[in-house]
Amino acid sequence: MNQEWRLKSFEELTNKELYKILQLRMEVFVVEQQCIFQDADDKDLVAQHLCMWKNEILVAYCRILPPGVSYNEYSIGRVVNSIETRKYGIGIALVKKAIEIIRTSSPDAPIRIGAQLYLKRFYESFGFKQDSDIYLEDGIEHIQMILK
Length: 148
What we know:
Number of helices: 3
Shape: globular
Helix content: 25-40%
CATH topology: Aminopeptidase
CATH superfamily: Gcn5-related N-acetyltransferase (GNAT)
Order of helices and strands: EHEEEHEHEEE
CATH architecture: 3-Layer(aba) Sandwich
Number of domains: 1
Radius of gyration: 15 Å
Oligomer: single chain
Distance between the termini: 35 Å
Structural class: alpha+beta
Number of strands: 8
CATH class: Alpha Beta
């Protein structure tokens, strides 16, 4: 199976790539998690979009935001992988790759995320620490976490 990482700015995304990103995000966040929310939040316009493609099928995605967009720190968000690929560790590879990309340009920069509470242990496995009380976002319990 051919696997390829692609990192692109919004302007560099093709129409097909953008369509597949939005399709995967809606498949998981809106349909699977039954969460109605405003996904198009203008942050995509300034994000770096990290995608893993296997045989030209988008299997994992996240966006990397610079400081000052979501938080004062760098941020990783919209972390998602397809239902069919969850048992293969692709989500782990995706988060590792996103951290590596940030560390390449800013080795000492902290990274802050807004994580769904049920994924706390997943993010702790990368060194993230809880940095807020539990809060509701779009009806789902979240916490802020930071990687220093």
